[in-house]
Structures are given as C-alpha cells and as structure tokens.
Design brief:
By secondary structure, the protein is an alpha+beta fold. The protein folds into 3 domains: 224 residues, no CATH class; 105 residues, no CATH class; 77 residues, no CATH class. The protein is built from 14 helices and 17 strands. The chain has a 6-stranded mixed sheet, with helices on both faces. Strands 7-8-4-9 form a 4-stranded mixed sheet, with helices on one face. A 4-stranded antiparallel sheet has the order 14-15-17-16. A hairpin with an 8-residue loop joins β16 and β17. α3 crosses α10.
C-alpha cells in the first residue's frame, strides 16, 4: 500500500519513458521496488510530479549546469521555452519529532504487556506531560517520556507491578501518577470500559520556531543545492507532504507558526529561492467515516520582486500540473505505516461489496485470494458481510438467497478501475432455473 495507487505510479513511470534516460528510469523503478520505506514516499511524489509536469511542458531531470549539484526539475513552457524554472523536489515529515516523542510506542508497549498477561487492554487513559525548550518564538516541545529505545524496558521495569494489578483486578478502577527522572505521566484505568482507550499529550509537531522545524530545514538545504547548481534563472522548491504539521497554516496563537510565516522567514534571507510550491495532503472527515476523502491542496508562495508575468505563468502551469497528479489513496502517515507493513509491496484492495437485486460486486483480488487458498472461506465471508461472528452482527446472505430462490449465475464480468489497485467482479443471478428448482407449468 502506498500514498498513490501502484497502477497510477506505473502510468507515471510509463509517461516519463520519453523524458528521462533509461538509466534514470531504472534507478527510479529500483527505488520504488526495493528502496527503504523512508524513501518510498519521496520517490512516489517525485515520479508523480515529474510525470505531471512533463504533460504541461518540457522537462529535464537532474540537468548538469556545470555546478556541484544537479537539482531535480528543469521545467520549460511556452514558445521556445519562454518561461522556465529550476526546482528541487523534497518530501518532509514529522518522523524525527515522533522519534523524539514516542507516545504511540509507549502506549503500544503498555497494551502489549497487558495482552500478553491476558488483559484485553481496554479502559486505559494515558496522559503525558511536556516541557518547552528555548525562548518564546524559538521553542520546542518535548514530551516527558523515556527515549524510544528505552520504552520497552521502562514499561517492564517501572510499570510492571501496576500493570500486573490491572490484570489481577480487571473489575476494579486503578490509577497511577509517575514523576521521576524527568518522566511524568498519568494512567487511569476504567474497569467499566472494555473496548476503547484514550489519552492526551501536547501537540509536539506544531512549529513553535520559525527556524527549528522540518519545513525551514528542507528549504534551507534545497536552496544551497540550487545555489551550487550553476543555474542563473528562476529557482524554487517543491515541498511535498510526507505527514508534516509545518505545512498547515495557523493564526499565530500561542506562539505557533504556520507554513506562510516559515516560508516568509526563508524569503527574507539571501538564499536564491524565488518561489515555494507546497503540495499538502488534506483529509476531509464527514459524519460517516466511509465518506472520508483525501486530496492534494497545492499552494504557491513567491518572493517579492518576482515579475507578475512570471507569477501568472507559474500559477497557470501549476494549476494544469495539479490536475494531472494522481489522487492520493490515504494520508501520508497512514501510507508510511502501510509501506512498513508486510503488505507494503502490494496495492490497496477494494473494501466491502455492493448488492442490488440479483447482482453483487466484490473485490476481484479478494476472490482470487480465496480461490488460491491464501485466505480462508470463513474470513472471506466475514470480510464481505456474508457471515457474522455473532448473532447481533448484520449479515447479507446474498448467495444463500439466490439458491433458495432457485437462481443461478447468468453473467459475470470484471468492472475495472485503472486508478485503483483492484477491480470489481460483478456477478448477476437470475431465475428460477429448473437446474436447481422445481419444474413449472409454462405460462
């Protein structure tokens, strides 16, 4: 599973075959197939962006201008390359902040400990304290937790007695306040809650400094690379969302900085960046989770003094390019977790099914996995709502109903989806059929 569907990524690679050398394409495909999970998201963005820009004008990848660096994209549009720019592409995330503040690892280790000893691990609330480092306007948040490498041993050594009590007395409420050696948190256990847990902590990914954040660091590094390329025209940086809070805009409350303020701070320097294009992934969360959607929101920031005609042309090119980008399958953080998983090398299957009358649509991949013996029939039926684990769960006994009515399969076909990593198998039933139902007097 990835940020973009594998089919869309392959289409992007195919599109680039006329614009990149065979060696460059082979290197990209190698990174997509075997690259470290931390670089896969960046490669997906790079391939998709280069493909989209190649359909809006002329591109050259890693062109040599005689300098020490070869930035990613030289883009030209208009008659004889009337408008052009050189840009480096970067994908930024809050991975480092998560490494320094291992809240999720801490909670997961506590649940693992409880489950190993027979507790369902529901009913927990873990609230972690924090501290601020640095002066106002240049602060950084640190959660008061053990270092990530020490979390497992800490839970076992320092919390083992308390957690053992929860296992021994699951029907009693318990609480713990821990405050030692710069580590401070509270654990509450509600014996009435058997399924859900929760907790809170200060948002450590929000930038409280214009200079100490992933966006500023990436822009600074890329600006130096552009400066060392030897190119003398318009230069910029394309920033892609790898799950980074610094790409969001903010009001400035509580000393937090938004994307615009951080970029303006970079523009005020002498670095040769005339524009920054930010591609943020935005997830909408309606009332029903099944209706949630993920989309790319592009935003162009430019330095004062860039000619109005160039800005207008750039905006037009970026608008066309953004329309050619594939739609994301998920948020960057979810994509990163998926890429690290055991199924990271395959695309996302279509979930669920749909029925109407005597017709049912199910995942073509799921059906193939069933016939190949990779998944059990019981699991397949449960995943598609055709069988339930308990009497209270709703089921749709579609195939049983067809047999009871004497209906047989009359038509089967594939309903393809070129932008997803799965297709629908459509099965149409009709009858009654005398092959499995009583004989009838003709009308």
């Amino acid at each position: 599973m990835a940020l973009f569907s594998r089919r869309d990524l392959q289409t992007s690679v195919d599109t680039l075959s006329g614009h990149l050398t065979q060696t460059q394409l082979q290197a990209m495909v190698h990174r997509l197939n075997r690259g470290p999970s931390g670089l896969l998201l960046a490669t997906e963005w790079e391939v998709s962006l280069l493909s989209a820009f190649s359909q809006c004008g002329k591109i050259e990848y890693e062109k040599d201008f005689g300098g020490k660096r070869h930035p990613d994209l030289l883009f030209q549009s208009g008659d004889s390359g009337k408008f052009e720019f050189l840009a480096d592409i970067t994908t930024i995330s809050d991975v480092y902040a998560h490494e320094q503040n291992p809240y999720d690892d801490f909670c997961a280790e506590i649940r693992i400990f409880l489950q190993k000893h027979g507790h369902i691990s529901g009913g927990l609330r873990i609230d972690v304290q924090h501290e601020m480092h640095g002066a106002y306007g240049n602060r950084k948040v640190r959660l008061l937790l053990p270092q990530k490498a020490q979390v497992q041993e800490f839970v076992k050594a320092k919390l083992g007695t308390f957690l053992a009590l929860l296992v021994k007395e699951p029907d009693s409420d318990h609480g713990l306040f821990y405050n030692q050696s710069g580590i401070r948190f509270t654990i509450h256990y509600d014996s009435r809650e058997k399924r859900f847990d929760g907790g809170s902590h200060f948002d450590y990914t929000v930038p409280y400094s214009k200079r100490r954040n992933p966006l500023r660091n990436a822009l600074w590094n890329k600006a130096i690379q552009l400066l060392e390329s030897g190119y003398t025209g318009s230069t910029g940086v394309i920033v892609c969302d790898g799950g980074c809070d610094a790409l969001n805009e903010r009001s400035g409350a509580n000393g937090a900085y938004g994307c615009h303020q951080i970029i303006e701070e970079v523009f005020r320097s002498t670095l040769p960046i005339l524009f920054v294009l930010v591609l943020r992934v935005q997830e909408s969360r309606p009332n029903f989770p099944s209706d949630s959607s993920v989309k790319i929101v592009p935003k162009l920031y430019w330095k004062t003094g860039w000619e109005k005609a160039q800005v207008s042309t750039a905006l037009s090119a970026i608008e066309r390019m953004s329309q050619l980008l594939p739609a994301p399958e998920d948020t960057p953080m979810n994509a990163i977790h998926s890429l690290k998983g055991s199924n990271g090398h395959i695309g996302r299957p279509l979930g669920g099914f749909s029925m109407q009358g005597g017709t049912i649509k199910i995942s073509a991949r799921a059906l193939t996995q069933l016939l190949a013996g990779e998944i059990e029939l019981k699991r397949f039926l449960q995943q598609h709502g055709l069988k339930s684990l308990t009497a209270r769960e709703p089921t749709f006994a579609f195939f049983e109903q067809q047999l009871k009515r004497g209906h047989t399969l009359r038509k089967a076909f594939v309903e393809p989806d070129e932008h997803k990593d799965d297709d629908w198998i459509v099965l149409e039933y009709a009858g009654p059929d005398s092959a499995i139902s009583p004989y009838l007097v003709p009308k």
